[in-house]
Amino acid sequence: MPESFKQRIFSKATELLEERLDIGSDRQADTFRALKLKDIINKADFNHGKLVVIKVKNSHSKWYSHNPEYAPSVYLTLVPKTVENEALELQKIRKKHQDDPKFDFKKTSYRTKELRCADHNDDIGHADIADADYIMKYGIDAENL
């Protein structure tokens, strides 16, 4: 193995270790902040007012490969507009610690609503796939869920 290649690997490994150590040193302060944000979010009114999208996930189910006439479902994670910034900050903290085995994700989990947007199985609690873009841009009234 060429020496330059070994050096690049060592350099990258050192960089990743330093990042991980920095994240570990932030754990206590980040957990404290995450718990404060969680409390604010959990106290918000999820039943009235505007809900906004803070995360979008697409289904990766193999069912769609057998049913190509349907688009994959889109899952929108929603919180009240009043706590959007807090939810995004908490989400950022949790993402920062995703590879930190000592970060307590269960303790810092927070209340959300999930809306499934699909062009099939239009049950209560679901929206049409065509509505997903509109909801992502403008939100949705909690009373409409």
TrEMBL record:
Keywords on record: Plasmid
Name this protein carries in UniProt: Uncharacterized protein
